[in-house]
Design a protein that fits this description.
By secondary structure, this protein is an alpha/beta fold. 35% of the residues lie in helices and 22% in strands. Strand 13 and strand 14 form a beta hairpin. It is globular. The protein binds 5-amino-5-deoxy-1-O-phosphono-D-mannitol (M6R). The site of 5-amino-5-deoxy-1-O-phosphono-D-mannitol has 16 residues, from helix 9.
């Protein structure tokens, strides 16, 4: 949600900013802009509404004006305060154009701060909350503060989650960043320093990466980088290893990231599962401060997540309850912390998040820690805020996911959560080690079954064409088919903007069935579970209302499809592992439908990949 990039140093260039912004575009594409120090000793600012495409010309213009001491900041916006216009595009400046800022997040108390500044005669040129930061820093600098001192002082006056980077014409080459529950990473190639909202933005530039801590100020300049807390006491920088390759963040011959990432699912799951068991078959978490005995004492699991990650968490609920008999609560992160959740030190709170930065889930994790729970993050981005906050981490090793619609990280999350479920069953003694080993064996075969499901690419393209005129879709399933149905509907909504709803099939008759008629298409997740017969009875209810049925089922059940209905056959696997296979045709249907309608699947309207506002 908004992408920030900043660079200073010998090998800096405007192109570092603009190419970084292209890579950050999945975080927002309402407008973009850069500020660089120019030859006249001031700032040159270039902005464009409508995304980073128009930054190509900007690159040339800005490069022609760039000064000798090079430092620059860039931003791609997902609008919160103020329409996505040129005037609201970042970077924003203070009254005298001596301070420039790029910002991600929300200044919750910006109205009060803005009134205070207006009363003092400050002139605002945008409707954004961001601009107050520039003016507050202006005040501090006028009072004699350095840029670092000014940022530390201003940071403590602002409420809300945010990260930002500022530059001042009075300190050429110096950039100061601040982070509070919003992503920011520091990197260097030895000659230049880079600050960015995410690793892929600087993956081709930096060879060494450092964590930026919450409530800390980071100063980078010709002499290197230093971090300090808000009282300006220095804090050492901590390096972390990034294994992602540049190629993994490129489209590599695919039309878009979404199709590339759909096809990467078997590899992503294989990597996520690989080498996880130690000699006594216990699960090796990537980070942990609790041991197997503590895990065995857990008497309740609470899963918090948003969107697609929530659907992965829902699959895990079925598996954990089945294998461990532990009660599992599941909550949408934004609801969790505002509803007095019953959590104590024997609760394991599992935060599931691709980015590890989603503000709602991060805040839920904070709340869980405050309540004394044991916490575990299942996330994809190494060193992300959730990974650093939780007591333990289980990384999905899906590689960078750029498409806004999550695909490979979803199936990798389910794989990781299945391992967690099996580990809980093992430490609690509900499954014998031999049973755990057998289930692991089956889990490791899932990538091969996914490969089979991916062969349905053309079938789903045909199906999308067949249903191209349909304006209402329903997705139904039972047991773990229910979260698959929810995910199928979410994917279609996200990228094709068609009304699509997911329901538990048994719930249809309690209301939603009223919406069914011959103009609706109903996808049924009909792979084999113990509720198979009941599900087929629900399908009869749909047929009786005249809606067209598409069955996602195992080949042995192809006969259940009636004449004229579509049957999509996917490999039969262990029922609790089936969501990783069954969701693939639904991802492909959403993809082909959206492409058929001429939409950009990687950049769906109104959405940002990482949602760092509440
Ligand atoms: O990074 P996270 O997994 O925490 O993100 C959660 C949701 O914002 C995300 O899954 C969203 O629903 C995606 N657009 C799904 O395609």
């Amino acid at each position: 949600m908004c992408g920030i990039i900043a660079v200073t140093g010998k090998r800096a260039s405007v192109e570092v900013l603009t190419s970084g912004l292209h890579r950050l575009e999945y975080r927002g594409y309402d407008s973009a802009g850069v500020v660089v120090h120019d030859r006249g000793g001031g700032f040159s600012r270039y902005r464009a509404a409508g995304g980073t495409k128009s930054l190509v010309t900007l690159d040339k213009e800005a490069s022609a004006h760039v000064g000798e001491i090079y430092a620059g900041i860039g931003h791609t916006r997902w609008a919160t305060h103020g329409a996505p216009t040129l005037f609201n595009a970042h970077p924003h400046l203070d009254c005298n154009e001596r301070v420039a800022i790029v910002h991600n997040g929300i200044v919750e108390n910006y109205r009060a701060l803005k009134e205070e500044l207006l009363a003092k005669g400050h002139v605002f040129s945008s409707e954004t909350d961001t601009e107050v930061i520039a003016h507050l820093i202006e005040v501090e600098l006028r009072g004699g503060a350095t840029l670092t001192q000014a940022v530390a002082s201003v940071a403590s006056r602002m409420r809300g989650a945010m990260s930002f980077v500022v530059a001042s014409v009075d300190e050429p080459g110096v950039l100061v960043g601040f982070k509070r529950m919003a992503p920011m990473v520091l990197g260097t190639d030895g000659e230049s320093w880079f600050l960015a909202s995410d690793i892929p933005a600087i993956l081709d530039r930096a060879s060494t990466f450092f964590h930026v801590d919450d409530e800390h100020v980071l100063t980078v300049g010709p002499d290197g980088a230093t971090m300090a807390d808000l009282s300006l006491t220095p804090v050492p920088l901590v390096e972390f290893h990034v294994s992602w390759t540049l190629e993994s963040a490129e489209r590599s011959g695919f039309d878009d990231f979404m199709s590339k990432e759909i096809f990467e699912q078997p590899a992503a799951l294989r990597d996520t599962l690989a080498g996880r068991l130690d000699a006594d078959r216990s699960l090796m978490l990537d980070v942990t401060t609790f041991d197997a005995d503590e895990l065995a004492r857990i008497n309740k699991v609470f899963i918090v997540a948003c969107g697609t990650s929530y659907h992965a968490g829902m699959v895990a609920k079925y598996a954990i309850e089945h294998w461990t008999k532990l009660p599992v609560e599941l909550d949408i992160s934004s609801e969790f912390r505002y509803r007095d959740p019953v959590v104590d030190e024997r609760t394991l709170v599992v935060a599931v998040s691709q980015s590890g930065e989603t503000l709602d889930t991060l805040a839920a994790l904070h709340e869980a820690k405050n309540l004394g729970a044991q916490t575990l993050a299942v996330c994809n981005v190494v060193g992300s805020s959730m990974a650093r906050l939780a007591d333990a981490v289980l990384y999905t090793r899906a590689g960078p996911e750029v498409g806004v619609a999550a695909t490979k990280t979803h199936t990798a999350q389910i794989g990781a959560l299945m391992m967690l479920a099996l580990e809980l069953a093992r430490v609690r003694g509900y499954l014998y080690p031999q049973e755990v080993a057998e289930l692991y064996g089956q889990l490791q075969e899932i990538p091969a079954h996914m490969d089979e499901a991916l062969k349905l690419w053309d079938t789903l393209a045909d199906l999308a064409r067949k249903h191209s005129g349909i304006s209402r879709f329903y997705f139904i399933g039972r047991h773990v088919g229910y979260p698959v149905a929810l995910e199928g509907a979410l994917k279609l909504k996200e990228i094709s903007y068609l009304p699509a709803e997911g329901y538990p099939a048994g719930e249809l008759k309690h209301g939603p069935i009223a919406m069914l008629d011959e103009n609706a298409v109903v996808f049924v997740i009909a792979t084999r579970t113990r509720l198979h017969e009941k599900l087929l009875a629900n399908v009869e209810e749909v047929r009786a209302r005249g809606s067209e049925v598409v069955l996602i089922g195992n080949p042995i059940d192809a006969g259940v499809a009636r004449a004229g209905e579509s049957f999509v056959g996917v490999p039969q696997v262990h029922p609790l592992f089936a969501p990783m296979v069954d969701v693939i045709p639904l991802q492909m249907f959403a993809y082909h439908t959206a492409r058929g309608m001429g939409y950009d699947v990687d950049r769906p309207r109104n959405l940002a990949k990482t949602v760092t506002v509440e």
